[in-house]
Structures are given as structure tokens and as C-alpha cells.
Write a structure and sequence with these properties.
The structure is a homodimer of 419-residue chains.
Chain A lengths: L2 H20 L3 H17 L1 H17 L4 H7 L3 H16 L7 E6 L5 E8 L2 E6 L4 H12 L3 E5 L5 H17 L7 E3 L5 H7 L8 E5 L2 H10 L12 E5 L5 H13 L8 E7 L3 H14 L3 E4 L1 H6 L4 E2 L13 E7 L2 H11 L4 E5 L3 H10 L4 E6 L6 H4 L6 E3 L7 E3 L5 E12 L4
Parallel strand pairs in A: 3-4, 3-6, 4-5, 7-8, 7-12, 8-11, 9-10, 9-11, 12-13
Antiparallel strand pairs in A: 1-2, 2-16, 14-15
Chain lengths: 419, 419
């Protein structure tokens, strides 16, 4: 069978399964999630064995240490994946929730009811845990899912998919609701992106290259996230100790992630007293600073920042630093160079806090807290299927609720329209 | 200047204007809407004169009577357009609303705040009133809008655009927030659909041909609506008088619109007693019936329905009629042949009412009311920018609120992340 036909079959089966999955009660879904978790733990040995084959192949192909780390499954890792599914089971079920209901003058009672999106395609790299996480979240939201991981993790992903499907069969739910694409060819992704008849939305998770590849080829709407160029603006009235702690946390705690700080903006009045201690703390942790001219007058040992530094997502221990005249310049800078991901202000000024929250056009805007909180778990969404930096449908970290939409339900008693 | 460059300039200006428009207070926006309404009434003579030129040209080009009707502006029509803008001003402002707010265990207070989408492109046909309606709705939602109407209405649309911009200038708001594309070439639309850097969403309004043209070419997300194949299912326990009234209303009151009934499904137990009077009432109004075999045993004078009739959006006095075994067959039929637009059940059975509302996967599902209520005004959204039959972002009639999204706002007091 050729790949195009097989992908079409997978997509068609997902569409069929989605009708059943959409109508499942929360009880049935949550029991299935529990059985999926159990299955993973029971089949641990099989999963680790398949993962070892992926790792051996990856080593042969010379994948980087970082890539191998992301690819590796451990006994503890499998337990965590199972625990993740159990936590998804404990989340409230968004499907069927009536988010609003009102009465019209003619007596019609109109409501908006949450319903599943339908079929979701997830395209991702490396980490095999995404296979189970995404499957669990989509299922909880009443959706069928088609999973396409990286070729380097193909055996691990297929193994996880098989174990999940066995558990779903035991739980009596349609196994085509979770399908792992068994093909590693790029053609498989390209075919998947053409299935607008069967797939409702594509969620790519991975580097900017993967995401651009998907966006350029997809006929299906894509919920995407290019990069996180996150800013912290230290205002004139910032508490010094707080500014030190938050800047350090946002840059150093985990520099390789999208919600780490990449640019520090400091109010000109705060710069002389705050930049030196912040710089010292960061430099002790190995952070390279690249500053504007005013920054370098205060921090002579900082490198010179070039125009491209203001756009950079370093994902590394490097920080661009700029002294700004005031909050207006900070907000303008973020609008011009930022990626609409996550930005924070540190201030003691009430009006500036409110203004920053209102005017910064990013998916997550914080006052007096680390940018690292821009994350589904941290914000209390329960779990995260991804982050969107485009505004349509969802903006920011996305939880189960973002895998649903609403329809109008209308209770009448014979109303007809007269005009 | 070539068209591509000019469209880019328009899009770029819209993006710039959108930053100002997003931050306007409700008062300023509503005052501007009032002045726009006033401007249209004051410049009535100019608008009617420009519209007459369009009409003359259209007559020369042999446009149909229906097209000419849609194109024509009248004195009353201009007043109604102005009234529409005043009503938009009276709607609640969605921007800045915090739809939810919660506290995390670490003390962070997390909220979701409504914000504008940014720049909206509206592509539409004939009716010049859309120019003012869409401009008003987008502005109310804090968005800039780029309007591209049909070439046959170009003088009318430009005139309306000019009057609106004059009023906006008087009101002190950025006039590039409402721009009418002055080019009638198809190339102008094609260029517009490439401006993903400046335009956040495209809303096409018109026939299926226009919408498919837009979807195939757009790099920007499209909120779309192909067609309305709306069903009414008359259940075994339907009230006879109610079924008669609702079926008549849904088919005959305005057959040319997307929320008119196109297929009638009747429960086999109700068919012998209900089909004859329904058929009589509809046939008296000139409706042609096309029935399945079981229908034609009860209504021998009905034509035979072919497979394609179940998919048909007649937009005319034609109705496909099918007798079904039960509610399950009705729901399956709607799932297979419907367009996910609007479907209704007429029943006295509590469980069937609830089941139909839950299981029919359409944007608007009604019990005991006419499908004709699937409309922004009728549902109480205040005004309608369009209807979406795809699930992403919005599903069903869309009001001002659907021209916004939400961002996370977070109030902290020094929180940093430790894991």
C-alpha cells in the first residue's frame, strides 16, 4: 500500500472514531485513561526495549547528546508518563459544559455548549512522552488524535501507541481514536497535512524549522508557536531584591526553554543601581551579557549588542540588555522585537503594572513574577498540549479546554421567525 | 505604483493602526461609531450618487435582477446602515473583559483578558452595507479592518469608506483602521491573502465559489462558512401544529438564505399522519418536494430524491424529504450529509430533545424552533460578522466577541519557579 493511501486510511478511521469519542461520558474516558496508565507501567520492559533500539540507531547516526537525552526513556520516565495520564483523568471534563446560557425576548433559551474539535494531528520531535501526553489530552477533550513523532523515536512511539490501543480496547473505546503514524518518511507528514476533510487542526511541537515546514504545507489550520523572545522590564520603582531573584530565575533556572528571559529592559533611573548587581549575579552563573550603549557605560565588561540580538531567542546563557527611557519605550521595544510569547514587568508602581498588563500584546503578561510561569501546569490548566503565539482560537499555553470549541444549543417551544 | 506594493502598504498601515485601536477606551470607540453613523446620513446624497454609477455599470454588464437588488442603496437603506452602527456602539465592549480569574497555590493570580485579534481582512460580494457593518464590528472589537468588496460595488464601497474615514478623523482615531481596497482586480485579493505578517484573520462572506477561492489561496487563517444544508427532524412525538408551523417557516419564510431548511427528516411513526398536511402546506407555497421511497408511498406526487439531493443547498423552494426509522438514523443522516450549520428537532420527548442537542455536531442545534433563528441578531449577539461552519476559533454565528481572543495576565508578588 502506498503511503498516501495509508495516511488517508488512518485519517478516515480517526474521523470515524471521533464521533464515538465525542459522545463518551467522562467516566468512560477517565477509566480508559487509567487503564492506559496501567498498561504503560505493565509493559514497561517492552517500552524500554523498543526505546533502546531507537537509542542504538540514534547513536549510530551520531545524534547529539542533548537529542539522545530527550529520546531516552527510563523506568522512572515511564512511571511519570503514566502518572501524567492519571492526572489528566482527574481534570474536569470540558465536553458538555454549557459556558453561558441566556433567554431571548421571544422565549428561546440559547446556550453555548463545549464540544470536541474532532480530529487533531500532532506533529512533534524526539521526546516519546509527547505520544502519551498528547493522546491523553486529546482523548480527555473528546477528540481523536493522529500522532506523528520524529523518525528517531519511531520504535518508542509505536510501542507506546500499541500499549495505549490495547488499553483502549480493554476499556471498550474505539482504538482508532489514538493512532501513531508508522511511517518515518517526510511524505507521511506531507500527506497528513492535506487531509483537511478528516483532520480539524494540526498542532506542531518542536523547533522553528519543524513548525515552518508544517505551516507552509498545511491545508489544515495550524495552532503554532514559533519562538519565545521573552522580556523582563525592570521599572524605576522595582524592588531591588525581587528584581535580582526574578531576573536570575528567568534567565538561569532553565535557559533552554521558550519561556526563559532573552532580553532585559531596565528603566534609566533604575539602571545605575540595579544593573551592576543583576549583572554580577548573572555573570557568576555564566551568563554572557550583550548590552546597548547605555548599558555598556554602566557595565563596561558587557559585549556590544547588535540589532539582531534584540530579535534573538538564544535558548542559552546569553542575555541582551537595554536601558530604556520609560515604560512606553519598553512596551514599544517588546512590540517591535518580541514574539508575543511572554513578558514581565517588575515594578512597585500601580499604574505601570496595570498599563503593562493591558498594553503588552503577548500571550502571557506578568507583574512581579518570573516569565518561567508561562506554562500550562504552572498556570493551573492541568496539563499543556502546547503554546500558541498566534491569536486565533487560542493564545498562550493551551490546556484540554483549548481542544474544544462551542456550539449553540437552543431550547424553544414552537418559535418561528417573522422577520 | 503596482498593486502588490499598494496592498502591502494598506496592510502595513492597518497593522500600525491596530495598535492604537486596540488601546482605545469604549467611550472613544462608541463616540466614533456614532460619528460614523452621522457622517453616512449627512453624506447620503453622495453615497446614493456613487451607488447609482455602480448600478448603471452593473446594468450595462447585464447583472441579474437579484444582484442589482443586493447592490442598490436607498435612502432608507443608508439610514438603516447608520442605525446598525449606532446599535454596535450600544453593545458591551468585549475588550479588556477578564473572563476568568483564579489564584494559584503559590499566590499568583492568573486571569484571561479579552484582547482584539489585530487586523481583520473581510472579503465580500455585492451588498455595500457590509462595508459599514464589518467596519463597525471590527472597530468595536478593537481591530483594524481591510475591506475588499465586489468589483460591481466598488464606487459605493469607496464612498462609504471615505465617509467613515472622515468621521474617524473627526473622532481623533487612526483612519487606517478602516480601509477599503480601491482595486477591483483579482490580483488585489491574491496579494491580500499573502499578507500573513500584517493580517491576522480573513473572513470571506459570500457564495461557496468566493469562499473556496479564498481558502485555496490564503496563507492567513480563514474563518469560513461554505453552505447551510439545514435539517429538521420531526420526531414520533412531535406536536402536529408546531411541526407544520416550524417546517413552513424554515422552508418558505426566506428560502434563499443559509439557515433555511433544505432536508426534512420524518420519524416513520409520524410520517403517515404528519407528512400529508406538511406537504400540502408547503406545496401551496410552491415548494417542490423530492422524497425517498417511503416518503413517496405516502406522498405519491413527490418527485424522487436522488443521492445528490441529500447534499443539496437549494436556496430555493425545493425540499428533500426522507422518512427515517428513529432519531439515531436522523442524527446519522445529518452527520453524513449535513454541513454542520444548523439543525432542529421537533419533539415532545425529553430524552430525544437532550440527545439531539448533544449528539448533532452542528454549529447551531435547536429543539422546537425554526432553523431561521441561526443568526447573530436573533441569538442576541447584537450583530453578526459572519457564520463559521468550521470549529476552530468560532463555530456558528459570530458576534463582536468572536473578533477578540484572550491573553493570560498574571499578578505576582515576587514569585520565581523552583522546578
Amino acid at each position: 500500500m502506498d503511503i498516501a493511501k495509508e495516511i488517508q486510511k488512518i485519517a478516515q478511521q480517526a474521523r470515524e472514531a471521533s464521533t464515538q469519542i465525542a459522545r463518551l461520558s467522562s467516566e468512560v474516558k477517565d477509566r480508559a485513561l487509567g487503564m492506559m496508565a496501567e498498561g504503560l507501567v505493565e509493559k514497561k520492559a517492552f517500552l524500554l526495549a523498543e526505546n533502546r533500539k531507537d537509542l542504538e540507531q540514534a547513536k549510530k547516526e551520531g545524534l547529539s547528546k542533548a537529542m539522545l537525552d530527550r529520546l531516552a526513556l527510563t523506568e522512572v520516565g515511564v512511571k511519570e508518563i503514566a502518572q501524567g495520564l492519571r492526572e489528566i483523568a482527574l481534570l474536569p471534563d470540558p465536553v458538555g459544559e454549557v459556558v453561558k446560557m441566556w433567554r431571548r425576548p421571544n422565549g428561546l433559551v440559547v446556550g453555548k455548549m463545549r464540544i470536541p474539535l474532532g480530529v487533531i494531528g500532532v506533529i512533534y520531535e524526539s521526546r516519546p512522552n509527547v505520544t502519551a501526553d498528547a493522546a491523553g489530552l486529546c482523548l480527555k477533550g473528546g477528540n481523536a488524535v493522529i500522532l506523528r513523532g520524529g523518525s528517531e523515536a519511531i520504535r518508542s512511539n509505536r510501542a507506546i501507541g500499541n500499549v495505549l490501543q490495547e488499553a483502549m480496547e480493554k476499556a471498550g473505546i474505539h482504538t482508532a481514536a489514538v493512532q501513531v503514524i508508522p511511517h518515518t518518511e517526510r511524505e507521511a507528514v506531507e500527506e497528513m497535512l492535506k487531509m483537511e476533510e478528516f483532520i480539524d487542526v494540526i498542532i506542531p511541537r518542536g523547533g522553528e524549522g519543524l513548525i515552518r515546514f508544517v505551516v507552509e504545507r498545511s491545508r489544515i489550520p495550524v495552532i503554532k508557536h514559533y519562538k519565545g523572545v521573552c522580556h523582563i522590564f525592570v521599572d524605576a520603582t522595582a524592588d531591588k531584591a525581587m528584581a535580582l531573584e526574578i531576573c536570575y530565575n528567568a534567565k538561569v533556572q532553565r535557559p533552554g526553554v521558550c519561556n526563559a528571559m532573552e532580553t532585559l529592559l531596565v528603566h534609566q533611573e533604575a539602571a545605575p543601581s540595579l544593573l551592576p548587581p543583576i549583572a554580577e549575579k548573572l555573570q557568576k552563573a555564566g551568563v554572557e551579557l550583550r548590552g546597548c550603549a547605555r548599558t555598556r557605560r554602566i557595565l563596561p565588561n558587557a559585549k556590544e549588542a547588535m540589532e539582531e540580538d534584540w530579535y534573538a531567542e538564544y535558548l542559552d546563557l546569553i542575555l541582551a540588555v537595554k536601558v530604556v527611557d520609560d515604560i512606553a519605550e519598553a512596551i514599544d521595544h517588546i512590540g517591535r522585537y518580541g514574539s508575543r510569547h511572554t513578558d514581565a514587568i517588575i515594578t512597585s508602581d500601580y499604574a505601570n503594572a496595570q498599563r503593562f498588563l493591558r498594553e503588552v500584546d503577548s500571550s502571557t503578561v506578568l507583574v512581579n513574577a518570573s516569565t518561567r510561569f508561562s506554562d500550562g501546569y504552572q498556570l493551573g490548566l492541568g496539563a499543556e498540549i502546547g503554546i500558541s503565539t498566534t491569536k486565533l482560537h487560542a493564545f498562550g499555553p493551551m490546556g484540554v479546554e483549548d481542544l474544544t470549541t462551542t456550539k449553540f444549543i437552543i431550547y424553544g417551544d414552537g418559535q418561528i421567525r417573522t422577520s
